[in-house]
Amino acid sequence: MATLVFFSVRESAQATTRRCFRGLAKAGHSQSSVPATHSPVVALLPGVRWFSRGTAARLVPHGTSGGSAAGRGGGGGGALALSGAAVVAAAAAVAGFMANAGHFQRAEMASRVSPAEEDEPDGDIAKRCKAFMSPPVTDVNVLQGRKEEMSTRMEMLIMETQAEFCKALEEVDGGTFKVDRWQRKEGGGGISCVMQDGKVFEKAGVNVSVVFGNLTEEAAKQMRSRGKVLKGKDGKLPFCAMGVSSVIHPKNPHIPTVHFNYRYFEIEEADGSKQWWFGGGTDLTPVYIDKEDAFHFHNTLKEACDKHHPQYYPDFKKWCDRYFYVRHRGETRGIGGIFFDDLDSPSQEEAFRFVTSCARTVVPCYLPIVHKHLDHRFTDEEKHWQQVRRGRYVEFNLVYDRGVKFGLATPGSRIESILMSLPLTARWEYMHEPAKGTREAEMLEVLRNPKEWV
Asked: How confident is the model at residue 70 (pLDDT cuts 50, 70, 90)?
């Protein structure tokens, strides 16, 4: 059952941040050097603060959750690039993962988390939707009528993730997101939330997409190349896909860029059976190395992974380092995080709980780092280095990112959502190489030789 609890978000944020920073204390990291930040704030740990959002109502699971969605119909979260934001959030599921063929993984998940601990909030769909940045893509009445199906549960999770992250960023920046709803004529649509040229964030985008239709033959071939055995009817393969995707580019070089996406994909075969899988990840791209930030970010992700299987973090961390690699530069895009795809075991329910755990790390793994560096001043030289690193970010996204490439090559794509991940400003210099012994050279060394942070 679910209990309606009125609580202070100040208390909730405090508890979240205490949990996500306890690893720092275990490792003996000092927080004494973390500066105070803007008010109104709440002191959580020495040097760590969080904004308050006043009082709110929320449905909190109590006891055993009711009903399982395992094996039921659903939506999807790799997205066909025909859909725009779906490209950024999920098109990799359709684009084919030839580069990762050697490390295709089917996880064997241990059921370590009780249903009540990680399940999404119960209760009336319409009430939960009121907290979103926009009404969901799917009609609320439709969602209410199939609330136990995976398509509804995943759409609610990605909408909640979008809203929680956007509101946390708005609180820090003082600006507001432009909410842009769009429709895909082939089926479905999305919600793009973008904030540009704010006080803290140069560009911040958080996209949701929910699309459906029939796979093209090209897309089906790419999926088969990844080991998917797909049997269509009359040449058609109905699919449903959904995901949430975000890229945040701060103005201050001391605040890292962050990216995440979580997605679900489902295909119905000729005999009515369904194939489904989850994918996603979260990764950090700093301009300068801060070991405490790196530890906090990776440790928060590790704790979420460890609730489900001890091999998840080490395996998905390595996968992330391999994927976000700028081959022509011989360096990673950032300091990584986790990345996974084709997750279809041991059950739909367990896989969904794992993705839920990951999605709920988005705010606690990133916002404490943002607050820590809010008041840090920076020089023209540091801003210049940020622009150079932004150039490398653009190179990866346009040259290697499968979702972007697939979207740009697909007729009917929503270009604005595909290119949302690019920064407003970047710089390219001929034969640029930082001087030895500098912090810039230290950053480059880490990118050329990925490290273990926890």
From this structure: very low
226 has a pLDDT exceeding 80 = no
pLDDT at 18: 45
The pTM for the full model equals 0.75
The DSSP call for residue 309 is -
Q: Which residues are catalytic?
A: 259
Find out whether 112 and 185 touch, Cβ atoms under 8 Å. Answer: no
Burial 339-364 (b: 16+ CB within 10 A, else e): bbbbbbeeebbbbbbbbbbbbbbbbb
Angstrom distance (rounded) from CA 208 to CA 341: 18
* DSSP per position, 195-220: EES-SSEEEEEEEEEEEEEE--HHHH
Q: Give the residue with greater pLDDT, 319 vs 65.
A: 319
d(CA 266, CA 272): 12
What are the structure tokens assigned to 335, written together? 């300091």
Quick check: 104 and 326 in contact, CB under 8 A?
no
- pLDDT for the residue 273: 79
* Confidence at residue 68, expressed as pLDDT on a 0 to 100 scale: 34
> Measuring CA to CA, which residue among 308, 307, 282 is closest to residue 108?
308
DSSP 64-75: SPP---TT----
Q: Which tokens sit at 158?
A: 């990605």
DSSP symbol at 345: -
Cβ atoms < 10 Å from Cβ of 63: 11
Half-sphere exposure of 276 (CA within 13 A, CB side): 31
75-448 under CATH 3.10.180.10, yes or no: no
> Which uninterrupted H or E stretch holds 380?
helix 380-399
Residue 280, pLDDT above cutoff 90: yes
